Amino acid sequence: MNLSVIIRNRNEERYIGYAIQSVVDFCGDDVEIIIVDNDSTDDSLRIVNTFDFLDITRVNIDKNEYSPGRSLNIGVKESSNDYTMILSAHCEITNFDFSKVKIQLDSGVGAVWGKQIPIWDGKKISRRYMWSNFKDEPSVNYYSESEKRYFFHNAFSMFKRKHLREFPFDERLSGKEDRYWANDQIDKGFKIFYDFEQEVKHHYTPNGATWKGTA
Predict the structure, then answer these.
(1) pLDDT tens, the chain, 215 aa long
(2) Burial class (CB in 10 A: 0-12, 13-18, 19+), 149
C-alpha cells in the first residue's frame, strides 16, 4: 500500500499496540509506519518492537525540542510513500477505506479527516464539547460554531505527502496546530474534507489536551 502512517508517541503504552494493530487490520502488513517518539520512559517502545514483521521507522525527538507540529513534520520527512496518515497513539481504527480517501486527495483536497468516537474506559461517551464537531454526515470546510473557526482534527487524518511537505505544520505552536493549519489551507483556497465513514475510537488519556473540559 502506498501509504505511510505517522504516530506520535510519548508514554503511550496503554493504547499504542491497539493503534498499530488497527493499522495492520485495515492497511495490511506492507504499510510503512513512522513512530516519532518524545523521550518515552514507559513500555511503549517495547510494545512497538513486538511488531517486528512491519516496516517501522523509529525517530526520537528530544522533549526540550518537542512541539506537536515539529514531530509531525519530522515524520513526514522520514516517510517514503505518496500518501500519509496521521494517527494518534491512543486511537484505534474501526473503519478505513484507503481507495475512497485516495480519490478525495487526488482531486486536490488538502486533507481528509475522519470521525472520532470518544471512549472512556471502554465506554462510548456522548459527543459533547470538542467531540460535537464529529458529525454523522460529510462536510467540506466544516465550520465549528463552538470554536468560531474552521475545524479540523489530525488525530485521524490523511494527506498527500508532497502537500504536507509544501505546507508543513507550524512548529512554534504548543497545541491546535491542526486547526491553524486547516484555516490557513482554506484561506489559500484548498478544501478540507470530513468523511464520517472513516472512523476511529479515540481512547481517553488523563493528560490528553483533547479531553480538557470533558472530565
Answers:
(1) 899 999 999 999 999 999 999 999 999 999 999 999 999 999 999 999 999 999 999 999 988 889 999 999 999 999 999 999 999 999 999 999 999 999 999 999 999 999 999 999 899 988 888 999 999 999 999 999 999 999 999 999 999 999 999 999 999 999 999 999 999 999 999 999 999 999 999 998 776 555 555 44
(2) middle
> For residues 118 and 166, what is the distance between their CA atoms, to the nearest angstrom?
32
User: CA 29 → CA 2, 116, 175, distances in Å?
Assistant: 12, 24, 32
- Tracing cell 502506498 back to the chain, one arrives at 2
Q: Enumerate the β-bridge partners of residue 83.
A: 3, 160
Q: Rounded to whole angstroms, how far apart are CA atoms 72 and 25?
A: 23
Name the helix (H) or strand (E) containing 99: helix 98-106
The rounded distance, in Å, linking the Cα atoms of 31 and 194 is 23
Nearest-angstrom CA–CA distance, 43 and 98: 31
